[in-house]
Amino acid sequence: MPKRILHVVTNVGHYDDPSHPTGLWLSELAHAWEVFEGRGFEQAIVSPLGGKSPLEPRSLKFPTYDRTAKAWHQDPERMTLLETTLSPDQIDAADYDAIYFTGGHAVMYDFPDSEGLQRITREMWEQGKVVSSVCHGYCGLLNTKLSDGTQLVAGRKVTGFAWQEEVLARVDELVPYNAEEEMKKRGARYEKAKLPFLPYAIADGRLVTGQNPGSARTTAKKVASLLQG
Q1: Which of 49, 117, 140, 31 is closest to 86 using CA atoms?
Q2: Cβ contact 201:209 at 8 Å
Q3: Domain coordinates of the chain in residue numbers?
Q4: What tens digit of pLDDT does each residue of 24-75 get?
Q5: Which fold has domain 4-227?
Q6: Half-sphere exposure (CA, 13 Å, Cβ side) for 110?
Q7: Residues 151-199: pLDDT tens digits?
Q8: Which residues lie below 8 Å from residue 58, measured CB to CB, with a gap of 6+?
Q9: Residue partners of 133: CB distance under 8 A and separation at least 6
C-alpha cells in the first residue's frame, strides 16, 4: 500500500486589514507535493472549512516561485484541487500516514483554533503517524492537545517562520501575533537557522518542521524518510 499524505491549506484570503491580501504560499504545497509524488505517495488536501484555498500574491513573485510552483499554478487540474479541498469532517485520520501543514500568513488566522484539524492531528499522532509543518504551518500545532491534555509541541524541538523573518518581510505590524513567541509559550524548544530565509528543517521523532518557504522540500524529504524507514 502506498503511503498517504494529508496536506493542510488555509481558507483565509486577507489579513485583519482586508486591503492586504494573503493566502496559501503556493511553493510550500507544490514543492512538498513533488517530493511525495516522486516517492509514489498518495496525496489529498484538507482545509479548516473545506472548499477554496486562495493564494498569497507574494508567493507568485518570491524566488520560491520556481519551475515546480509555476507548473502547479499553470495546471488547471492542480488548481482545481485548491478550489475543492476536503473539510476535516470528511477525513478519517486512520487513512493517512502523515499530515503536512502548509503556510502563508493566512494560516495564522484559521489553523490554530480549528477543532477539526486538531482532532485529525491528535488522532494521527496517537496512532503513531508523522505530524509535520513548514513555515507558518506550525501555527496549526499551537493549540493541539493530546488525549492526556498536554500540548503536542511541549518539550519538543520545533521550527517555523521566525519573528526576525516577519520583520525583514515587513509584515510584523500586519500579523495577528508573534508565532515564534507563542510556540515557545507552549513549551516548544524553538530552533531556527543562523541566517534568515535559509532552508532549515528538523525532526524530533515523528514531529517534522521547516522554518520558511525555502524549507518545504527539505521538510518533505524528512517526512518521506520517516515513512519509508
Answers
A1: 49
A2: yes
A3: 4-227
A4: 999 999 999 999 999 999 999 999 999 999 999 999 999 999 999 999 999 9
A5: Rossmann fold (3.40.50)
A6: 27
A7: 999 999 999 999 999 999 999 999 999 999 999 999 999 999 999 999 9
A8: none
A9: 100, 101, 102, 103, 140, 141, 160, 208, 209, 210, 219
Which three cell numbers mark 149?
Answer: 491534555
Q: 509514489: which residue's cell? A: 40
